[in-house]
Amino acid sequence: MSTRFVKGSIAALVSLLATNAFAAQEVTVYTAFETDILAKYKNAFEAENPDISIKWVRDSTGIMTAKLLAEKNNPQAEVVWGLAGSSMALLKNEGILSTYTPNGVDELRASLNDPEGEQAWFGNDAFFNAICFNEIVAKQHNLPMPKSWEDLTNPVYKGHISMPNPASSGTGYMQVSAWLQNMGEDQGWSYMQKLDDNIAHYTHSGSKPCVEAGMGEVAIGISMASRGAKLKTQGAPLEVITPAGIGWESEAVGLVKESEAAKRVVDWSISKAANELYVEMYPVVGHKEVEATVAHFPDVETNMAEMDFARMGNERADVLKKWAAKFDAKSEPRS
């Protein structure tokens, strides 16, 4: 055998091994995380797991939940990471999520996890609603600063408020559910009817109403508190208000397909390293040892509504059907 042949064979073998070593296994992850944080989470995971790559499929909570339900008999997702607890409860009930106990689960705050036996989902963070109030626009229109949900039904705010469509946005649905659970069914629907009189439009994004308020397109956006805090940090003339009965949810992770690579994504998503990324945007995260103060984030814990995530999931279809019949006419066109 010639030396040239041996050298050529070794080079080919080394090349083949190198190709296989760097051909990372792709895991499809469905998410409703905000678009601007996906790269950060993907890069951090892949830095620790170079043999696995994440393929994000992202949409708003309502659309992503509907997609997962539609694909029930032919699942395309392997992991769901960053979806509302109420949606996760529904997906578990439909048999879409697999029961799985990730490594490190004992280090998590139990209040953000699946409350039932045979757990299938685990909290990454808690996200909250807020009223984003543009002080400059308010001054131009002589609008007082609201302090309660009832204040928003004042006719002075007519045409100055936007909020998310609850069918498209988990942010919207969790506030609708908070009103219904804490005010009672009749009073909750009555309240939303009065509020609708003042609504300029409903958006298909949970963060958009706050962005609109920050840009002065509306005076008030019922939206994500984290988005309001971030915009205020960037200089937007916003007051971020959390009245009593503010809606909130656990944003969670769960396993769909039981591959080893998918399990490693779930394991990493509840790790301390992952939680140290979540806490950059959310003051309440899943890991017991991770906490921080987020700049301009309002006091939320004293005004949190009592939320039953299982009820939210079970009632979702009926609530959204009733909401659409009453209020969908003011929703923005879908892009």
Automatic annotation (TrEMBL):
Q: Which CDD domains match?
A: PBP2_Fbp_like_1 (cd13544)
State the Gene Ontology BP annotations. Answer: thiamine transport
Record-linked InterPro entries: ABC_2-AEP-bd (IPR017663), Ferric-bd (IPR026045)
Q: Does the keyword Amino-acid biosynthesis apply?
A: no
Q: Any one cellular component term from GO for this entry?
A: outer membrane-bounded periplasmic space
Q: Which domain of life, per UniProt? A: Bacteria
Residues of the signal sequence? 1-23
Keyword Signal in the entry? The reply is yes
Pfam families (UniProt xref): SBP_bac_6
Going by the UniProt record, its keywords in alphabetical order are: Signal
The entry lists its GO molecular-function terms as:
thiamine binding; thiamine pyrophosphate binding
Spell out the protein name for this chain: Putative 2-aminoethylphosphonate ABC transporter substrate-binding protein
According to the entry, what is the taxonomic lineage of the organism?
Bacteria, Pseudomonadati, Pseudomonadota, Gammaproteobacteria, Vibrionales
